[in-house]
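User: For my dataset I need records formatted as: sequence, then structure tokens, nothing else. Please produce one.
Assistant:
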Amino acid sequence: MPSALPDGEPMPEDGALPASALVGAASRPLGFYLHVPYCATRCGYCDFNTYTATELRGSGGVLASRDNYADTLTDEVRLARKVLGDDPRPVRTVFVGGGTPTLLAAGDLVRMLAAVRDEFGLADDAEITTEANPESVDEAYLAELREGGFNRVSFGMQSAKQHVLKVLDRTHTPGRPEACVAEARAAGFDHVNLDLIYGTPGETDDDWRATLDAAIGAGPDHVSAYALIVEEGTQLARRIRRGEVPMTDDDVHADRYLIADEVLGRAGFSWYEVSNWATSEAGRCLHNELYWRGADWWGAGPGAHSHAGGVRWWNVKHPGAYAAALAGGRSPGAGREVLSEEDRRVERILLELRLVDGCPLTLLKEAGLAAARKARDEGLLEAAPYAAGRAVLTLRGRLLADAVVRGLVD
């Protein structure tokens, strides 16, 4: 979750939403994102809204303590119940992200999940995920999460190579993420993801192949692979500017993506979103699909974003300010925006084009349709789905997805 917040109109103190937000809600899935903003150390490439103990010292006081964070976040879940009123939908997905959620006690994560279940109810087949750093969990911790209702876990592996992990400032040792997968399986987790990063300065093709082989060998049913993005203001950006490490390279990123798709495909993984592969439909991340398909979700926690029926809002960033708002009986919302029909059309194209079944051509205007025809002719969109009325990226189109989508949105 990037740290920068957008502009927007002020959020009412009670968090009330425009009536339009819940029109037709019964036909849309509802998910919850629970943000845990704490990290033991800050990775050099990270631009997320996270805080180490040193960064919070003296600025957040007792309100920002992770010791009572589960109680604070539970207060926002109760606020969500008031704001959404008699909305009858059981929650389809819960995703606990960060930061490092597993810096909290396992019992705290279970209590946060219980708050969602108690206030809203969970669908019988609800997907319940937490992110985890490999060095912050063990067998007993994972077993407690599984017993408490979690059925999916996502480990931040990034790389199997020590020198790559060092550039990224990751603190786990090679081999630990793979061991975590085995421990999660032993604890009874149905679905396990490994997050990978490619294109780190100093990484070679062989390093990346070794990382993919190690990830596959661990036995997850989902792999996410992201190109390293160097964000301004991060430690990595400063190191590159000083010439300590080379700048990342788009051509290298493209080559690494092709390697990933080839290696993962050979191992039985299929892409279903540009950066995500799963061994089956059941292995896909349903929570992320809520985002990509414009469903409703409530984001609880500092800086978390939410969406319901074309209304988007976001919370204040700092954990202290977040906790103070809830302690004072106020919404922690910092701002919101009501999306126009045109905004929603463009967002559908931006997000759905990244999916394996693409977006309907009926979303496109005249210029976008012309661009789609050109993209098909250039081998960037699949011909058969195009003939059936959908824009679906080819492998080459996935490499150029940003350029393709710019054409389709006119």
